[in-house]
Write a structure and sequence with these properties.
The complex is a heterodimer of chains A (198) and B (288). With 198 residues, chain A is α+β, with helices and mostly antiparallel strands. Chain A contains six helices and five strands; from the N terminus they run H-E-E-H-E-E-E-H-H-H-H. Chain A has two domains: 77 residues, Beta-grasp domain (Ubiquitin-like (UB roll), Roll); 74 residues, Orthogonal Bundle (DNA polymerase, domain 1). In chain A, strand 3 and strand 4 form a beta hairpin. Chain B has 288 residues and is an alpha+beta fold. In chain B, 35% of the residues lie in helices and 26% in strands. The termini of chain B are far apart. The chains are: A alpha+beta (198), B alpha+beta (288). At the A-B interface, helix 1, strand 4, helix 4 and helix 5 of A face helix 1, helix 2, strand 3 and helix 6 of B.
């Protein structure tokens, strides 16, 4: 089924055709339904009142000024807005900030803190894995989770792990090289730290 | 591109969720992982007036051993099953299919029940649930009811839920000691969207006789499709090469798939037969 087919179906039938109408009257249209939310971003707690429909990606950029999280497709396909929510990758364009009460978010600004580059950033730098840079923060966050789950990946596993991040400069070869190099750096770092995974 | 305005509820218990569904009916949507719903909202294809997020209802996040199987709650994330050793051991078909379900970033957020309820014709989990004869448990303020995959799926993106109901749990029976399972997918690119796929679960006794066969295909119909002619043919017989060929042929004959830009009808029919053959050969190899 093509996307067009799906879309025409959805227009013809919002998914509830033939079902009985709701028992209550339609709720008043709340154009400015605002919700109070408290969440942690890169270790700092923020409390804000935001529109319910505010996407996490917009919240990070416009509310907090963290513009390292980039917005590409806004439909979960390109991976540019990938962040970590409670340590796991998620697309910030598919999350509503107001539904994330209590969550801990990590963006590209938070991965190295105030110190030198994170080993994965360093590997991207050394392997020339950054062209225009628009996709880079998404790749970095995807790589952080991937190397935690698989510290010694094959090249094919690296490619598979990056399938959800699009680089329109098509600089994939260097990106794959960088992730392989990053895996070595991360393993070395783990050894230096006495075997404690970081 | 932002979603149209809506009112958001983030209730902490199931009763509250059901009360909201009862109150708002067709105006409301459950927001579980949001990996299918939010893109449609961002494109404004869907504009629900009310969203009911499950994010704070921790009681609906579970993977419990129950009555010879596993009960999976409405808020249980796909990644939890992907990473579970118990699932790998006891629900090997679920484990095999999981890497095909979206990508890691979507499985971290997306829920098992959300994917089942969305009823995308190219989703993996509905076919897995059909092949394993899972039980869908539906809840509303009026009470609970249980249905099979056959009853749950009506057509593409359409299920049997009433406006005040939600899929609160799916129960999947454990694999028996005689059972073998295979999940296969064909796609145009190595890690891309599928053109078609097959979930297969068979019980083969010590004598090599197939006692039970369940084959459910995706991408061949508007919703998951049980290949019943092949199931009938296989049951009670030894899996020989001829039988496999025959099952493959009846599966091709029995399907009249849709076509789209990714694959035409004839190609999908041929893929149906090829998937059945590959899956069965894969099973007989693991037997012998």
């Amino acid at each position: 089924m093509s996307l067009n087919d799906l879309i025409s179906r959805l227009f013809a039938d919002p998914g509830d055709a033939g079902k009985k109408p709701s028992q209550a009257a339609a709720p008043e249209r709340l154009d400015n339904h605002r919700v109070n939310v408290k969440l942690t971003v890169n270790g700092t707690v923020y409390e804000r009142e935001v529109e319910a429909r505010y996407l996490l990606a917009d919240f990070l950029r416009h509310e907090l000024g963290l513009k390292g999280t980039h917005i590409g497709c806004e439909q979960g396909v390109c991976g540019a807005c990938t962040v970590l929510i409670d340590g796991r990758t998620a697309r910030a364009c598919l999350q509503f900030a107001a539904a994330l009460e209590g969550a801990e978010i990590t963006t590209v600004e938070g991965i190295a803190g105030d110190g030198p580059l994170h080993p994965i950033q360093q590997a991207f730098h050394e392997n020339h894995a950054v062209q225009c840079g628009y996709c880079t923060s998404g790749f970095l966050l995807t790589t952080i989770e991937f190397l935690k789950r698989n510290p010694d990946p094959t090249r094919e596993q690296v490619r598979e792990a990056l399938v959800n991040n699009v680089c329109r400069c098509t600089g994939y070869l260097n990106i794959v090289d960088a992730v392989e190099a990053a895996a070595v750096k991360m393993r070395d770092r783990t050894l230096d730290a006495g075997g404690e995974p970081s | 591109m932002k979603p149209a305005p809506f009112k958001l509820y983030v209730p902490e218990d199931e009763q509250e969720i059901l009360a909201l569904l009862h109150e708002y009916g067709t105006e409301a949507r459950i927001l579980a992982g949001g990996q299918s719903l939010v893109p449609l909202m961002n494109m404004r294809i869907l504009q629900p007036q009310v969203l009911i997020s499950l994010n704070r209802c921790a009681a609906l996040s579970y993977l419990n051993e129950q009555g010879g199987g596993y009960a999976i709650g409405a808020r249980t994330r796909q990644a939890e099953l992907e990473d579970s050793e118990r699932v790998a051991q006891r629900l090997p078909l679920v484990s095999a299919a999981m890497p095909y379900v979206g990508v890691r970033a979507s499985r971290n957020c997306g829920t098992v029940c959300g994917s089942l309820a969305h009823a995308d014709p190219l989703a993996e989990l509905p076919s897995v649930a059909a092949a394993l004869e899972a039980t869908f448990e539906i809840a509303s303020v009026r009470g609970r009811r249980e249905v099979s995959a056959d009853e749950f799926y009506l057509s593409a993106l359409s299920n049997c839920l009433e406006p005040d109901e939600m899929l609160r749990q799916v129960w999947i029976p454990k694999a028996g000691s005689d059972s073998k399972s295979v999940f296969l997918e064909v796609s145009n690119r190595a890690h891309g969207f599928a053109v078609a796929g097959l979930a297969l679960s068979v019980d083969i006794d010590a004598g090599g006789v197939c006692r039970k066969a369940r084959l459910a295909a995706m991408g061949l119909s508007e919703t998951t499709l049980r290949l019943r002619p092949a199931e009938k043919l296989l049951e009670g017989k030894v899996l020989t090469e001829e039988l496999v060929e025959e099952a493959s042929a009846v599966s091709t004959e029995a399907t009249a798939p849709y076509q789209d830009i990714h694959a035409d009808r004839e190609y999908r029919r041929r893929v149906a037969g090829v998937l059945v053959k590959r899956a069965l050969l894969n099973c007989s190899e693991t037997v012998n």
